[in-house]
Amino acid sequence: MDKQVEVIEALDVYGNSPYQEWFDSLDAVTAARVVVYVERVIQGNHSNVAPIGAGLSEIKMDFGPGHRVYFGTRGKNLMILLGGSGKNGQSKAIASAKRLWKEYMATAKVSRKSK
Which InterPro entries does its entry note (predicted)? Predict the structure, then answer.
């Protein structure tokens, strides 16, 4: 990749990161494996990435209960982490990620206009 990809976590209206809250709930081995999957995407390997609608994607992980990380992008150099889940909580987590993305985009537009 020509440019470094910046990775940030979207915050909800309370200033919390749903991604970080999910990540913190994982055991150390699982968390380390999640980091590897996210790093692969940052490096350009999208073999485990699938669209989930609303311009968002998920990283599908083939271990444990089917862990997923939900994210959006701005251009090619910004990855916004929105949340994570196991396969069982996928529907609720995707709905939450889409809601958070909408909030993030509204805030990003306001920030750009005020500069």
Answer: TypeIITA-like_toxin_pred (IPR014056)
